[in-house]
Amino acid sequence: MAITMSLEGKTAVVTGSNSGIGLGVAKELARAGADVVLNSFTDSADDHAIADAIAQEFGVTARYIQADMSSAEECRALVEKAGRCDILVNNAGIQHVAPVEEFPIDKWNAIIAINLSSAFHTTAVAVPQMRANGWGRVINIASAHGLTASPYKSAYIAAKHGVVGLTKTVALETAEDPITANAICPGYVLTPLVESQIPDQMKTHGMDRDQVVREVMLARQPSKDFATVEQMGGTATFLCSDAAAQITGTTISVDGGWTAL
């Protein structure tokens, strides 16, 4: 059978996708021909305009559906409202940094809910659809911190390790179906949020941009170069392709060598 990267006729639901990695993934899946459902917790004209722009650029159907990923009910309703879910990309996430003894309980609960539990809820609804349709891909955006740790990020690291474990379990439960489940583990990715942090870091450390990037932000990333949202999307597209049909239950690190250390 010829290997194809075309996703025509497939529908992808990407959580947390009105900016950053999620938007990059949605665009690359659309470039490969998939219809896409974008999501975030807001519901503005700009959110819907992003979907319209993707539809126009790539000639696919693109919709925006508001859902709060901290709510189990809204997570499940998102997949149901999509109508069809051949590709599920669990990307939504938040972060908070504090020592474990000072970590706010509300922040812990929110991070676990949005970064981990949301993936459980969406997957639980999507997998039966995928079985009924005879094909499916679950792609969880974990992190280098799903495989290793750093101080002061207890909730985030616990959640991302949990995402990796959830991915493996879903892969085993669907192993005899034409469904795969994998986790992408990015290092530092150059998103608008990360870009906006650079000027403050320059002031804090008295460094120029290149120094801040290499010595502060990418201190643990041996390549000393950011990954891009397009690379995240390309990796997701590969995992959806025929070439990846026997890749399931594993992690793919896109981290410039971070986890090789």
Folded structure, characterized:
The protein is built from eight helices and seven strands. Strand 4 (87-90), helix 4 (105-133) and strand 5 (136-141) form a beta-alpha-beta unit. It has helices at residues 20-31, 45-58, 72-82, 105-133, 154-173, 192-205, 209-217, 229-240, and strands at 11-14, 35-40, 62-66, 87-90, 136-141, 179-186, 251-254. Helix 3 packs parallel to helix 4 (105-133) and helix 4 (105-133) packs parallel to helix 5. The mean pLDDT is 97. The protein has a seven-stranded parallel beta sheet with strand order 3-2-1-4-5-6-7, sandwiched between helices. It has two domains: 11-189 and 227-254, Rossmann fold (3-Layer(aba) Sandwich); 190-224, no CATH class. The chain is α/β, with parallel strands linked by helices and 261 residues long. The protein is 46% helix and 14% strand.
